[in-house]
Amino acid sequence: MSDEAVREQYEAYPYPVRAPADEAKRLITGSPSHIDELNHYVFGGRRDFAKPFRALVAGGGTGDAAIMLAQQLANAGCPAEVIYVDTSEASRAVAEARARVRGLDNIRFEHLSLLDLPASGLEPFDYIDCCGVLHHLEDPEQGLQALVRVLADGGGMGLMLYGELGRTGVYPMQEMMRTLAADAPAASRLEMARRVLKQLPATNWLRRNPFLADHMAQGDAGLYDLFLHARDRAYRVPEIARMTASAGLRIATFIEPAFYDPASYLTDPKLLARLEHQPWIERCAFAELLAGNIRKHVFYVVKERNPVRLPDPGKPEVVPILRDLDGAAFAKGFMPGAALTANIDGINFRRPLPPLTGAILPQIDGQCSLAEIYRKIGSTKRVVARETFRAEFAALFSALNGLGKMYLRCPDGAKN
Ligand SMILES: C[S@@+](CC[C@H](N)C(=O)[O-])C[C@H]1O[C@@H](n2cnc3c(N)ncnc32)[C@H](O)[C@@H]1O
């Protein structure tokens, strides 16, 4: 299949399906490219969004990442420019209409293949989002290298590539569709796909994989993207590690970190002891094999020689930030010994929380440093030893950050 077939598909079926008018009601947020998340993983929490910021959304589609980034940067008062590029005019029209509804004027829309970025004169970029695009290229490594060439040395990228195991059932279905209707017009291919879906035997892997709902819920475009795609492939962790290393990149994290930690799934101490000394990437690969449900690998990368490190939750200067969590409300219901629990894609995550959780969470406002939070707790509650606070905050951070609920910011001058 050719680049032209991919382009035609996204002209006919922009994906994901979005109605611009919905922008008046809600902002779609996600990963990668939430600004607190990317600051933590790409900039070590040190990016000052009061300064100019140039972001690229490569293969921006119907606009989710460009709109989220542009809105969050505008909210932060950042003098930012978000450059959106895509080869589909129909997708760009949706993204542009969404920006208009929001009154965003910090996005520049370009009709361009990401492969042509190095010669475009648009670089350099502090940050690049490329979500669900590289796996549709004929040569995804060439695509990644094109992005590296326009990335500033101190910048980074948020990427998403399909996960092979979590998409179990998709590729046999794509193969069946090629047998049934490779050359048929789109409408009859969709009709064939619907007919097959109604007749899947109970043993079919697609029927046994209930976690593909986000595509299935999106009508024709979703079905087309999943089962009739002109070209897509999926990855496992070791292939991602090889591909990024050969592009001169280093993986800062997979999202969410807990999904890629064998300790999220295992309790057997003998197994955990064996895994403890494995390199981090081996542990991630093991967790992927074990969980079997990762459909999308979302991950952040920086250039190999970029010395940036993740913010240290042991430093008093760092400022914790909560994401999608009302700290005060959570603290109210918190009982000592309780855990953070979440059921994500069929797995029950349970992260034990330290006793000081109820005291710390209400103090997190995205402005106060750990040192200030410690002082506030001391003035309102019983006296807590500094070491106890430090250890309990580290445990709280590990639990919440593992599930994408807490990041850290390092204000200027912090010695992380
Ligand atoms: C599945 S959509 C993902 C859109 C968006 N990144 C998101 O996450 O919602 C893939 C997009 O990649 C675009 N695309 C495919 N090949 C491209 C290329 N070579 N250069 C730029 N965009 C491309 C398609 O037109 C399509 O809009």
Protein architecture, described:
By secondary structure, the chain is of the alpha/beta class. The chain is built from 16 helices and 11 strands. It has helices at 3-12, 35-43, 64-75, 89-102, 140-149, 170-181, 186-198, 213-216, 219-227, 237-246, 269-276, 280-291, 327-332, 357-360, 370-380, 386-402, and strands at 53-58, 80-86, 107-111, 125-131, 151-162, 249-255, 296-303, 319-322, 339-344, 347-352, 406-409. A 7-stranded mixed sheet has the order 3-2-1-4-5-7-6, with helices on both faces. Strand 9 and strand 10 form a beta hairpin. Helix 3 (64-75) runs parallel beside helix 4 and helix 6 (170-181) crosses helix 7 (186-198). The longest helix has 17 residues, at 386-402. It is globular and about 75 Å long. It starts with a helix and ends in a 7-residue tail after the last strand. S-adenosylmethionine (SAM) binds next to helix 1, helix 3 and strand 2. S-adenosylmethionine binds next to helix 1, helix 3 and strand 2.
Overall SS class:
alpha/beta
DSSP helix fraction = 25-40%
What characterizes the major β-sheet? 7 strands, mixed
Q: What is the rounded Rg?
A: 22 Å
Count, helices: 16
Shape: globular
Strand ordering within the main sheet: 3-2-1-4-5-7-6
User: N-to-C terminal Cα separation, in Å?
Assistant: 49 Å
| Unreliably modeled segments | none
List cofactors, ions and other ligands: S-adenosylmethionine
- Extended strand count: 11
Order of helices and strands: HHEHEHEEHEHHHHHEHHEEHEEHHHE
Mean pLDDT: 95
Strand content: 15-25%
